[in-house]
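README, section 4: Worked example with a bound small molecule

Sections 1 through 3 covered apo chains. Here we extend the same pipeline to holo records, where the ligand is supplied as SMILES alongside the sequence. The molecule in this example is magnesium ion. Nothing else about the input changes; the structure line simply encodes the ligand pose together with the chain.
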Amino acid sequence: MTNESNIVVCGSARVGKSTLINALCGRELAKTSNSLSSKTDQMEKYILNRDYISSNEASNSNENRYSITIWDTPGIESWTKEHVQEHISRIMLKSNPVCMIYCASPGSFARLDQLEWIIESSIKSNIYCALVCTNKYSGGKQSREQLLKDFHSLLSRYQPMTKNENNIKYYGNAALCATVNSIPFEDEDRGIEKEAEGINELLFGITSSLKGDKLIAWCHTIADNESFWSAMANQLAEVYKIARPIAEEVLQNHGKDIAKALIPFIIRAAFK
Ligand SMILES: Nc1nc2c(ncn2[C@@H]2O[C@H](COP(=O)(O)OP(=O)(O)O)[C@@H](O)[C@H]2O)c(=O)[nH]1
Ligand SMILES: [Mg+2]
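The generated complex, written as structure tokens:
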């Protein structure tokens, strides 16, 4: 049996959607663009296939596969309202995605009217929204702060902010807002050099907000991201109430396979 799930990633062209998709999955899945003429008109999709990681050792995992489709929408800045509504609602309604990840970079021209509509239709359909300020150092601090303010005021219309932790703002179980630098940033003219940051925190935020089947699909999506699983193992153990000695054993003995060792505990907790 194959379990099929979907994730929707949207935002304007060149804001860093493909770069973020690769950073989330911990491997090269989406083509990133270096040229200015890289606008795609087609909805792109990336498919991740993997064996089902079960919470039950007795189950025959060979018969269970997981297939996750990541939809990468073409730059929505040039879309008309009808265009956005038609595309997005078709995916939202048909595929009931695990989550909707909206990306905007500080320097880019964010279309808040379209974002407003995307948020509204996601929240109404119970689809978790992650609004991400991508490529955070590509614009000045002021434009980054303005973007985050805009995200916050859009989300607070639906749900008040419930937590602000590790640079992630949480809005109940409906949404979160984050800032990331998905790959190292260098700007010789401005003399800026920055490491990648914010990805583990974003992944932790989404992981700890999803429930049930969606949580399981999400864990499979990011299972290859070794850096996330090892950096956040302790926090995950806390959220999913994995006893400390068990968590320590997993950390010490599973090395690269830490995701495979931790996910069964999360799956069990997901259905409690
Ligand atoms: N340093 C840095 N560069 C980024 C980041 N995100 C995107 N970029 C760069 O910005 C360009 C466009 O990114 P891409 O992911 O292809 O944008 P997309 O069109 O939204 O998919 C590429 O040259 C990326 O390397 C980031 O977080 N940090
Ligand atoms: Mg792209």
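What to look for in the output: Residues 17-18, 30, 33, 72 surround magnesium ion (ligand 2) (CB under 6 Å). The chain is about 40% helix and 20% strand.

Section 5 describes how to batch many such records.
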